[in-house]
Amino acid sequence: MSASTPRLRQGATLASAGFCISLGILAVVLAFVLFPEAFAPNALAQDVAHGGLPALSSGHPLGTDALGRDVLKLLIAGSRSALAGPLAIAAGSMAIGLLLGGIAGWYGGAADWIISRYADLTLSMPSLLLAIVAAGIIGGGYWVSVLIMVILYSPFDIRLVRSAVMQQKGMAYIESARLLGLGARRILVRHIFPNVTLVIFVNFFLNIAYGLVSMSSLSYLGLGVSPGAADWGRQISDGRALLFDNPACALSAGAAIIITAVAVNMVGRQIMERSL
Amino acid sequence: MIRQWGDVNIRGAARYIAKRIAEFAVSVVALSFVIFSLLYIAPGDPARSLVGTRKATPELLARIREQYHLDDPFLSQYGRWLEGAFHFDFGESIRSGASVSDTIAPHAVVTFELVLISLAISAVVGVACGIAAAKGRGRLRDGAITVAALVGTSAPSYAAGLVFLYVFALKLGLFPIYGIGNGSAADELWHLALPAVTLAFGVGALLVQITRSAMLKEAASDYTVFMRARAISPLRVTAAQMKNASPAILTSAGLVLAGLFGSTVLVESVFSIPGLGNLLASSVTFHDVPVVQAIALLLAVFICAASTAVDICVYLINPSWVQRHGVRWKGGRHERIHA
Fold this sequence. Notes:
The complex is a heterodimer.
Chain A: H1 4-34, H2 36-39, H3 71-107, H4 109-123, H5 127-138, H6 142-169, H7 172-179, H8 184-220, H9 232-240, H10 247-275
Chain B: H1 10-41, H2 46-51, H3 58-67, H4 74-86, H5 100-135, H6 140-154, H7 157-171, H8 185-219, H9 222-229, H10 234-270, H11 276-285, H12 289-317, H13 319-324
Helix pairs in contact in B: 1-12, 5-6, 5-8, 5-10, 5-12, 6-8, 7-8, 7-10, 8-10, 10-11, 10-12, 11-12
């Protein structure tokens, strides 16, 4: 197996390159999310007379959509709607995970049993399906779907935190903290959570990646975002009718979602593989 | 160490099966409760939600109130609905007035065909690619397969489907653009090919990742070293590794089926396939509550039943593996699926 060392090194170099490129992509997307107006002023300005222009038209590098809006500007403006929900989902799921996972792992017993059964049950539920049904029946907007995703994503965080807390609980430093008479909350927040940050941080990234797909799937089906808003999923379903005139409209939004999701996933996994 | 097969303890097996079926029943009841109660969480009058896109006259509201027993206590309404569901009686579609089960049945057939075809594709291609990647660890082949699998698991199925539709159907003209054709079986298979590949791309990628990591684990084991040291042919070593990696791969089949039923909702809409997913999407738009509830329950039951059946099969094939890995394999940190 003398050949394995250079081979593995080659693999590691490829992975590093992928990691750096992904970070770069995420930086650009984040800039779009934070300052859409700076990059794409008046993205929603319509010009119906010039609807469905193909890509590389003068002044419109990616052409225009059916309403004559510039596709490139729409793409930049749509990043906010695409990422706000996933960020909220990941943050909410992390908060629930820390709270319930911490309680279950620290106290054990009946609290652990109830929380674990709750996690088992929500884990077996198809989240996207339920979000579609909820959005359809309740007619709830974007944030109702976000709430459902938070509830159905949280079992992953609950389990991670629970097992990490249980693992740390037996260690000597926790024993001494207890002997000092520190309260459960203080030990959890000040002593245990800093040691499980990494696991949770990695899962935060993965939750963003999954949330991105789930939320854009909903908006693709016409749920969650209002018609005419700048949103990648919406742009795909609107652009599908325009596939003959200006394929760039739907394809660029599809590419944006795929590239962002892959980049988020890549960063999360690389952090995990390097540090665990 | 080559694990033992066929040592099924009848009593242990019966206990395990009973436990899994009980879990299945609890999940289904909980899901049905969630699906049914969503109508009542909605702000405002459930009768108004059931009106759909019709005009809400007082007479119509009164008739709906009576038809759906909306003045009864919530739990008795839920019980009535669940009892009907057992007999596939979900009431009438608001949109068409036809019976919900008659409306759903033809769509369910199409979705089943689509899911079965893509299950076959993703099982064969996914496992083969996973083994190829593990065998060529660190080589270009491994890198290419791993990256493709990462894209497959990250990309939403409808976005990938749109790209496939544009490239293979619109530009290259290799496949039809929409629908399921003129009714002949061959033509239908032809129309379902590209949607099935789209579904398999996302879900098969998960199988690639699971197979690759399971095979790498076996490659690092003592028995591999001993077999190699004895100069046993690489083919037989691989065969032994595959045998030992199979429970981990098989258990993920439940997750794979769940993913297929989940993504089919979106992929059908990209390719205009008249399946359950498309019907669900259009019924959601029309606020056709009985149809939405019925499809959601049906898909949810399929998803739960698939994972239960797979777990039981894995146990019967290799009980010691299940005992070592806990009652039920919940998936690793990244083995998740969009459903």
